Amino acid sequence: MVHGAGAVRGNSQADFDQVNVAGTAAVLEAISAQSRPPRLLLLSSIVAREPHISWYAQSKWAGEQVLLQFGDIDRIVVRPPAVYGPGDKEMLPIFQLMQRGIALVPGSPEARISLIYVADLVDAIIALLRSDAAIGQTFTVCDGTPDGYDWHEMAAIAAQHWSRRVRLLRVPHGLLNAVAALNSRLAAITGRAPMLTPPKLRELRHTDWVADNSAITAATGWTPVVGLREGLEQLKIPTL
Hints:
- This protein is an alpha/beta fold.
- It has one domain: Rossmann fold, CATH 3.40.50.720.
- The protein has helices spanning 13-20, 22-32, 55-68, 92-99, 118-129, 151-162, 173-190, 198-205, 214-220, 228-235; strands at residues 2-3, 40-43, 75-79, 82-84, 102-105, 112-113, 115-117, 138-140, 167-170, 208-209.
- The strands form four sheets. Strands 1-2-3-8 form a four-stranded parallel β-sheet, sandwiched between helices. Strands 4-7 form a two-stranded parallel sheet. The protein has a two-stranded parallel sheet with strand order 5-9.
- α6 packs across α10 (228-235).
- The mean pLDDT is 92.
């Protein structure tokens, strides 16, 4: 069984905890009441390793701590990095801008992140659920690129794919700070859950969201097949 508590937008810690913590607890209570509880894989996030950085990160980490309280369940935790693929609405705008020749950089261009294509993530989840060696462990997954990517490398791959120059455009910190603060204030009035808030900015500006596959490969034999070059091809963003 896979549980992927999914609150990624919110304007307070409570907004995220309602799904990522309380929702996880509810699922665990339900399955632990069964005579034969199923194996549970919790789809967390790489940001859970830095719980202080944002409301979302704290909620993901707290959800993992709830899972640890249920010792009678065969449990596995996966912390994916940024996930992209068909239907994705979070990473797609970044790639669409690159297709137009611009890479908007919220922090340092040298900040490093790992990526994973959604089909690879699904295959990794299946491999973990089938592996007795994975029980009780926490895993990171990625597309296998050593040390992930910085913005220069992502822009270079996008430039090669679309046969055009992709320029890095660093967004002034003051401007992003103002937009994030305004989003948060408007959300308090309208009740709509914003994506860009001051805590989210801290996530985006963090310099190391690099994942590693060594543990999952050792436990299951799984390895990814889609790097960023192949992933951009499969996204099929129309060429302008």
